[in-house]
Amino acid sequence: MGSSSSSRNKIPNAQELMDQTGFSSAHLLRLYDRFECLDRDNRGYLSPDDFEAVGGLAMNPIGGRIIDAFFSSGQDTVDFSSFVRILAHFRPTDRNRNKEGTQQELPNSRTRKLKFAFQLYDLDRDGKISREELLQVLRAMLGLQVTEEQLQSIAERAIQEADLDKDDAISFDEFKKSLEKVDIDTKMSIGFLK
Amino acid sequence: MLRCGYALFWLLGSVLLICVVSPVKGEAVVTHEGSHLKLSKSSHSNESQHGHSSNATGIPIISFKWHHVETSYLVAFWMIKEKKKYILPLANREVIEANHHVTSVIPESALLICFGFILGGMIWAADKVQTFTLTPTVFFLYLLPQVILDAGYHMPNKLFFTNLGGILVHAVIGTCWNAASLGLSLWGCQMGGAMGISCTGDLDIGLLQYLLFGSLMAAVDPVAVIAVFEQVHVNDVLFIMVFGESLLNDGVTVVLFNVFDAFVSLGGPKIDAAEIIKGIVSFFVVAFGGSLVGLGFGLLISLLTRCTKNIQIIEPGFIFVLGYLSYLTAEMLSLSAILSIVFCGMCCQKYVRANMDENSVQTVRYAMKAFANGSETIIFVFLGISAIDKVIWVWNTGFILLTLLFVLVYRFIGVFFLTWILNRFRLVPLEFVDQVIMSYGGLRGAVAYGLAVMLDENKIKEKNLMVCTTLIVVYFTVILQGITMKPLVMWLKVKRAAVTEVSLLEKLTNKMFNHTLVAIEDISGQIGHNYMRSKWKYFEENWMSWILMKPSARKKQDQLLDVFHQLNLKDAMEYVTEGERRGSLEFVRNENSIIDFKKKSESESFDINNANISNDHGVMSNTRDPIPSVSLEMHEQTMKAVREAEAINAHHLLDQHLYKSRKQHRHRFSRSHFDINRDEKEVQEIFQRTMRNRLESFTSAKMGVKPPKTIVKHTQKEQQQKMPNGKSMDKAKTSYSGDEGSEGDSASGYDQSYMRATYRAGAGIENPAFMPDLDPMDLLQIPPWLAESELDSSMVALSHRAQVGLPRTPSNLRRLAPLRISTRSTDSFTLENIPDTQQMDSDQLPPPPPPRPPRDDGYV
After folding, report:
1. Tell me: the pLDDT tens digits for B819-834?
2. Is there a smaller number of Cβ atoms within 10 Å at the N or the C end of chain A?
3. Is there a domain that residue A95 lies in?
4. How far does CA B322 lie from the centroid of its chain?
């Protein structure tokens, strides 16, 4: 206990982070270790280069977007607390906590998870997934398997499916509605962060 | 009726299958194979005889050669007789299927067993001895493989592997637990004197025999589980847990049974630690060896289907034969045959589906289901029949009741305990209600019975008691638990399977979630199962698919495309249904090109249009290219609004632009192809013409979308290409302007500019890539009579305008029917049209030309 609390002390605002994200102190510690490991120059923050050094991300078709998500606030660095806050989106939803958790919405709520996914699409942050943005995602994920025409028609169709107000783009509400049946809690959660 | 067909097909299929694999299998099949050999022999001798007789004494016009065919006749009759006993259960099933409200309360399996009781009673009354019993050979070699293969082949792989840990824990540890606890408890009860109640006095069963009995009772039966759970639609995870467990633990239980069987024959004193260790080792060898054999055969099937492009008609056969071979091979090597065939099915399913022609895939699916259903039916009915036999009924109240009790109780304990452990590791824990259903779904079935019958009477004195107890447990679980399962599911409010409607965005986002999770695992430095999955996927895509899949199929394996394809197909189907509902178009057939034709007449217009761009390319080229490249969207409202005008326009279009074949379709017989003799060029031309017109007209209605640049380029190029010829383009334009009702021919300049604009407008939907392909062909292939008919296009347009407002009636449309297949040329038809349109009376049409010749063989 003593050792864990002492190492917890080196994490800035540990208690506050735990309250905001719902992570336990063990989680925080593990993430802090990881953070330090990523932060090769010990600067106390991460830059996009640090993320790009992670092996698997280079192969990931949407790796770039994920990295962008960490830098969504416009800065080009990310410190530990924002790092944790982003990762907290992927904490599995805790049933018991949700019932009592009236004080504030945790990042791993359904809406927040969806919002995160939505922002992966919405590159220009105008609150809408335009056809072009959708196409880019499709291109990244389907890669060379498909012709450009097929991609275009898929994008067209996907937009038409979700687009309720016929503005030829998908707003967050529409996005949420079209994913109503998807079990987001399972699909946007990582077991290890439980 | 369909069921009847199924039954027949199943019978034929099983005979065929048996014949094919008989060399491996040996004795049991000799009769069947013999019959076939004789059949073929006799046909040979028939021919040779014919030759001889013609040489000898003139030519007998007809001769009665009974003795030549006698044997085969008799064999055939005998076979039918033999098969009767299988047909009967199948007939029963049809009766049962007919009463759907019965099956909604009582599961089919229970009903079938009850039918079995009745049948058995009848047989007993007639013969006073039970002639039909389910022998282990028949069950394990002929009936079970089909059910299991079907289960494996249709296994939702992703779901299965996601939950593999839980399934394995339940299947292996749970089964061992069930076996051990049941055996030990029964033994303990006997020691305690609880068994003494029977009329036969003390039971002569030792600890090992109890364990043997426990091991055969331990397994949850896949056949029973499938039968019950298929009717109770519980959620995916729960289903896969129960189902996967039941499949895998069959393998486990057979292994356990064999180990204990060996122990029993070895005798108690000789068993030492070494033997026990050997037993445990053999357990793993048997289980993993069986799975490996299955995987091997699965890969073999995949490889084979990769190379069967030219012999599509027999590719479905491979799957059955090789699947069965995997079962037999494993059996031969005394590995777990059930595991083998399960993994064979699971391994090959993806590649088989990708490699084979769509028709073959369907064939496999239906045949597989038919086999499985047939086997399942026979199994249950025979379970029922077996009950009516005086020999096996040895009553021992204590033994039977205790067994029942222990089976139930230990199942509950085992499931709850194991799930409790599993839940600490699961992302989404199994809820209490799910656990109850899992426990309650522990149905015992035919596997247990088959194993019980296999017991050696010399080694186990109380075999009949065990068989009898097994039967009672089976009846209890299948009938009672089966019936109460549905109410229980309702009462506990178990999460049911959601009716899922695929949507592209959903699929795309799911895919994105997967990538996101992998990325986040990378970032947070953990190796979770997302990471493993992505590695596997990478390996699979780069190596397995490369080896096992056709190059053409490899490109299209993405699920997103699959969904897209499905959605498009669905739309096309809806289109057809809608058309049929509107009451015309009796000529709609399955053939894609005709769907296209029909759709045109049904709902398309020139002037007003929706985003209804030419899905037909996708549908038509289905056989060649399973992924349509153009999207189809239906907008019902707009369609309704313009329907009246459209119909008339459509007539006009059809009159003008459809290619009228001068050829009749000729059928030809081929052993390896189904399709009728279609002239490639003709189909292509029809397609191209309709495509062009639709592209031109539809896009004209879509406004206000910003254009991708590529499309503009295409249209310009196209128009330049067109100009020298002028004809096809002109034609489309005139018809277009005619529909506008105001411009007439002079408006061609307007049209061109308008069209260019609208091409941009439709951006993103229609496929500009078609255009270059289409153009050269079209230039070449305008038949002279069509070109001539353009001369009077203005006249037609005029008459057409006159028709505006005339409501479309079915008869009106039916008139179009003969058009496409008419052997007359266009001219005669357009000319015919003119007078009657001038009179504005469609009822005075000339009688339609004779209906086209029957084209049934292509479609049945």
Report:
1. 444 444 444 444 444 4
2. N
3. no
4. 18
* Partners of A130 in beta bridges: A169
Q: Do A121 and A84 share a structural domain?
A: no
Same domain? For A112 and A85 the reply is no
Q: Which of A60, A138, A188 sits opposite B519 (nearest CB)?
A: A60
Number of compact structural domains in chain A: 2
Distance from CA of A1 to the nearest CA of B (A): 23
B525 to chain A: closest CA residue: A34
Q: How confident is the model at residue B659 (pLDDT cuts 50, 70, 90)?
A: low
Strands A78-79 and A45-46: antiparallel
Question: Is residue A149 in a domain?
Answer: yes
Residue A99 lies in a domain: no
Q: Which of A150, A175, A188 sits opposite B513 (nearest CB)?
A: A188
Say if residue A84 is in the same domain as residue A114. no
3-state secondary structure B580-597: HHCCCCCCCCCCHHHHHH
Residues of chain A positioned with their CB less than 8 A from the CB of B501: 181
For residue B767, the model assigns a pLDDT of 44
How many residue contacts between A and B have a Cβ separation below 8 Å? Answer: 165
Residue pair B733/B748 in contact (Cβ under 8 Å)? The answer is yes
Look at residue A166 and tell me whether its pLDDT is greater than 60: yes
Average pLDDT over residues B2-28: 41
Is residue B666 classed as helix, strand or coil in its secondary structure?
A: strand
**Residues of the domain holding A113:** 107-187
How far apart CA B670 and CA B490 sit, in angstroms, is: 53
Q: Which pLDDT belongs to residue A127?
A: 80
Residue B472 has pLDDT above 60, yes or no: yes
Judge if A54 and A21 occupy the same domain. yes
Question: Given an 8 Å threshold on Cβ–Cβ distance, is B522 in contact with A60?
Answer: yes
Same domain membership, residue A171 and residue A126: yes
Taking CA atoms, what residue in A is nearest to B571?
A157
**In the structure, what pLDDT confidence band is assigned to residue B771 with cuts at 50, 70 and 90?**
very low
Tell me, what's the ipTM?
0.84
Distance separating alpha carbons of residues B86 and B377, to the nearest angstrom: 9
Examine residue A94 and state whether it is found in any structural domain, yes or no: no
Q: Is the pTM of this model over 0.95?
A: no
What 3-state class would DSSP assign to B54?
Answer: helix
* 3-state class (DSSP) for residue B102: helix
Alpha-carbon distance of B406 to B189, in angstroms, equals 11
B591, pLDDT greater than 70: no
- Using an 8 Å CB-CB cutoff, list chain A residues near B506: 178-179, 181-182
Q: pLDDT tens-digit profile of B371-429? A: 888 888 888 888 888 877 777 777 777 788 888 888 899 999 999 999 988 888 777 77
A60, A89, A118 — which closes off a domain? A89
Query: In terms of domains, do A180 and A124 share one?
Result: yes
Segment B146-205, tens digit of pLDDT: 888 998 888 888 888 888 888 888 888 888 898 889 888 888 888 777 665 544 455 667
Residues A147 and A178 both lie in one domain? yes
Instruction: Assign residue A114 the CATH number of its domain.
Output: 1.10.238.10
Describe chain B by its helix, strand, coil percentages, rounded to 5: 75, 0, 25
Q: Identify the band that residue B326 occupies on the pLDDT scale cut at 50, 70 and 90.
A: very high
What is the sign, positive or negative, of the torsion defined by CA atoms of B501, B506, B510, B515?
A: positive
A162 with A130, same domain? yes
Distance CA B313, CA B295 (A): 25
Cα atoms in the 13 Å half-sphere on the side-chain side of A57: 21
